[in-house]
Design brief:
Layout lengths: L5 E3 L6 E3 L5 E3 L8 E7 L3 H9 L7 E6 L4 E5 L2 E5 L1 H4 L2 E5 L9
Antiparallel strand pairs: 1-2, 3-8, 4-5, 4-8, 5-6, 6-7
Length: about 100
């Protein structure tokens, strides 16, 4: 993680990771591929809900199944996230095709 930058968004104070040019929506990664959460663009309640499921800036996750709900693996557990909520999660694609222990 040496080339990653953790910063706060100067506009709304939201914690972010990396460079915005590298961000994609969570649903843009392929099944069985991972993403590193770069930002969560949501209200406080939604951010807290995602954090309680392990989805927060800097966390690796793997897309198991796209759709609504989307199934992702985070911290070794599969969780379902509504498409509406998942749309607020921006990720940086992980190098390589997949990883073992999301």
């Amino acid at each position: 993680m040496s080339n990653e930058i953790v910063t706060s968004d100067p506009v709304d104070g939201v914690e972010t990771l990396g460079h915005r040019d590298d961000w994609v929506h969570l649903d843009e990664i392929q099944p069985d591929h991972c993403g590193l959460v770069a930002a969560v663009r949501a209200g406080e309640d939604e951010i807290e809900r995602l954090k309680s499921m392990g989805v927060c800036v800097g966390r690796r996750l793997m897309l198991i199944r796209p759709g609504d709900p989307m199934i992702v693996k985070v911290l070794g557990t599969r969780i379902g996230i509504s498409a509406r909520l998942a749309d607020r999660v921006m990720v940086i694609r992980c190098a390589g095709d997949a990883f073992g222990d999301a």
